[in-house]
Amino acid sequence: MKVTILGCGTWGSTVAQLLAEKDVAVTAWQRHEEKAVVMARTRKHPHLSDLEFNENIVFTADLNDALKSGDIIVLATPSHSIRELIRRVESGMKDQSIIVNLAKGIDLNSLMTMSQLIQAETAIGSDQIVSLYGPSHAEEVVRKLPTTLVAACPKKTTSKTIQELMSSEVLRVYRNKDILGVEIGGSVKNVMAIAAGICDGIGYGDNSKAAILTRGITEMTRLGVVMGAKESTFAGLSGIGDLLVTALSQHSRNRYLGEEIGRGKSLQEVTEGMDMIAEGVNTCRAVPRIVEKYDIEMPIAEAVYGILFENKDPLAAVKELMTRDLTAEKR
Q: Can you give the pTM of this predicted structure?
């Protein structure tokens, strides 16, 4: 079985390395030819000092060439570029290829999750799409620190194929049929991680962050259930697990972005100083339309939207959250 990785960011490159170390033949597509050449020559990644690429990884900037090599296609680009990429990919795929999606986000135009978007743009069935999510910072995985993920697909045999392909002594992969719940959890948690970072930047303490995380998972679950996901999924790796690591880790781009904003910087100032994308920003853009479409309450997510895109003062946003109408914890 051969694997093609589309995207050579930190996580895509880490997944390529994990597979190559299991003697899987990997073709890694980097859209910029000069970067592909440098990676092939140096066997290094610019943002992962602990990574030295395995010899089983072949780099290319030719998308058609990359697609010819893969029985399994891994989408490892940011969520906002998935629509364009999958349109380019479809004609070069083998009929029985499995698509493994690593991107976490909600499409701004359609409000679809990534697997829904892939299905809408291709003739690929849901039984051929797996979303591989979970608490997994590339910086730790390349150092061989134990990590767990969840392979989500409605068809058990497909998720089991990816589970067995990816699992190793340092990576344990579970299965879940609720791909919708896994994707919602893995996407919306980035918005909650920005909120947690804002708390840090303001100078609030552990009590405040605990409140954000607990009520944040409530908002994620509420949205998921309304959209048709299972409530239990949000107590798993792509729910509370991914939320914890993204909101608490020093490696988290979303937490960092929130912290800098909490310290008084604008969204533009922070993003211009970052080398990599904080996916929560794009997901947060969809929050007002999500709230309107599903007629649900997402006060934390809406507060983050106000801070990022409407210049709302973080302290004022927190005061509004704290003085909302009193209610029961679980409704």
A: 0.96
